[in-house]
Amino acid sequence: MRSFLCFILCLLLLTACSSAEEFLPTTSLRFTPLSFPYSNLGEFTLSDNQHGEQLALFLKVFDDTFKSGKIDDEAALHELANTFSLQLFSGNTLTAVYRLIFDFEKDLAFLQNEHHAYAISQENFHQIMETGYFNVIFQKNHAPTAQFYLNSKDIRYSVSGTWNYETYQDNFLSYRIYQQQEQATNYIVTDNDFHLSYAFSEKNPDQLYVSIRSNEQTLKSRSLLNSSSIEIPTQEGDYTYELEAVWSNPDLPYKAVLYYSFRIAVNYPPKVKLEFADSDRLLLLATVENYDFSGKVSASSALWEDEIPLTLINQQYYGLLPIPQDQKAGEYEITISGSGSSGSNENLLHKELVTVPAASHKSKTLTNAEAELLKVRSPVDPYLLSLADNHTAISAAEKLWFGSFVYPIARPLSFAYGQSLNGKDFSYQPFYQLYAFSEPTDVIAAANGIVRLAVENPENGYTVLLDHGLGVFSVYSGLAEIQTSAGSYLFSKQKLGTCVKSDKVKKAYFTYGIIVNGYYINPSVFFTRDPVFLYK
User: At residue 251, does pLDDT exceed 80?
Assistant: First the structure.
């Protein structure tokens, strides 16, 4: 019995000794990220058959740390953000679990098990950091450097996407770039020739795609780029460019995709154009393109007392600038000035000389009846002048007429604007056209418009002032009766009144005039064509 017990004890002792001598070598280390706020670095493993050199380095660092890095168990470790769960395997057998904790700013690292904490020396910490795996953590916001140039000027960009870091042994680790490296910046382009180029100084992507949008509208869908430059639309507008750069490795199931985006505002310099509406140079047209749509533009000159505002239509500013017919011939400076909207530093100042010609007219021999008719009207009628001064300050902001004006009557006229009459005290008629007929005649609206004035004057009969918008008015005076009232909307050719013979004159007559921004001009300009042809 005693010998049997001794045998059992010896067997247990041998078993214990053999167990104590049994060594399970570490064949792999598995790293599971627990807290890495700047990346979504996935779980990875170092194995002796693929990463033998790195595995040996980590085991040596751990062995040195366990021998001499134990710290006071009562010491509290600061809460560190970057933490791995570290699992040691021998084959498929889990042999130990540790926490691996980093403080990148202080170059500190710790190993911790359920009983003790160990401080990794700085020398060993730096050895770990030099491995490919931990470079990705240490450079947590790094992405390949890209440069974009617009006409040789740098363009700032934003970047997002997933970048794969190539490790020491050609393995790949992926993490996502969450925050923009740089804010996208607006650039004002003032050249007619655009050159947008790009370059990747560190590593060229294997494929590069471009997409272009403007105001949420896709102008160019995802297209492969085969050159070092990018096409730019030449129209004005705000454009968003997105370049998709793809890095791939055919031997590995990984690829990196980064999106570089930036905005370009294409805005040509303001373009001012002044031209006469017809060959007789009786009306000046002003247009301004490529200027702040929320700004204000006006024209000033010695030809007028006050500035004349230009109107924004179809993203261009337009203005009808009258040439008063009593103005002396010669050169006059026209100044087009503009101020940008609130917060804009954009200003406009354009000066140009225009030549005002001498008034031209045709001679006409008066009959006695015609001379009697003209005695009723003076060449410069104070009443008609007062209409322009007192009732044309407010005009419709939009263009109400379409095409050229029609004649205000359906019969041939007797006296035309611009005639020099050979009777006593009758010379060039500077402002109006006079119409005379042997029988009552209907008077019609020369174009669409709003009636601003419909009144009776004891000396001149009825007067109608019709607003056609943009500072253009037509005047019908000397009517025997009217069929409209202030505030009414009249269409072109719609009857507005009648002229009849009076006790003083043996013919029916009335006067017709055109006022542009407070000044009478030659009505003939509007009969031949729509002078604002650029509005179309």
Answer: no
Q: Is 146 helix (H, G, I), strand (E, B) or coil?
A: strand
Between the CA of residue 530 and those of 268, 271, 495, 499, 533, what are the distances in Å? 28, 22, 21, 27, 6
Q: Identify the pLDDT of residue 360.
A: 66
What DSSP element (H or E) covers 375?
helix 368-376
Q: In the beta sheet, which residues pair with residue 321?
A: 284
Mean pLDDT, the chain, integer: 77
The pLDDT of residue 376 is 58
Alpha carbons 212 and 221: distance in angstroms, whole number: 7
Q: Give the Cα separation of 54 and 47 in Å (integer).
A: 9
Task: Tell me which amino acid residue 467 is.
Answer: D
Residue 232: both structure tokens together: 């730019």
Q: Is residue 129 pLDDT above 90, yes or no?
A: no
Phi/psi-derived region of residue 369, left when phi > 0, alpha when psi is between -120 and 50, beta in every other case:
alpha
For residue 365, what are the β-bridge partners?
none
Confidence of residue 352 (pLDDT cuts 50, 70, 90): very high
Cβ neighbours, 10 Å, residue 208: 20
Q: Which pLDDT score is estimated for 168?
A: 36
Within 13 Å of residue 287, how many CA atoms lie on the same side as its CB?
18
CA 309 to chain centroid, in Å, comes to: 25
Largest CA distance in the chain: 168
- Torsions phi, psi for 237 (to 5 deg): 150, 175
Instruction: Read off the pLDDT of each residue in 358-377 and give the average, rounded to a whole number.
Output: 65
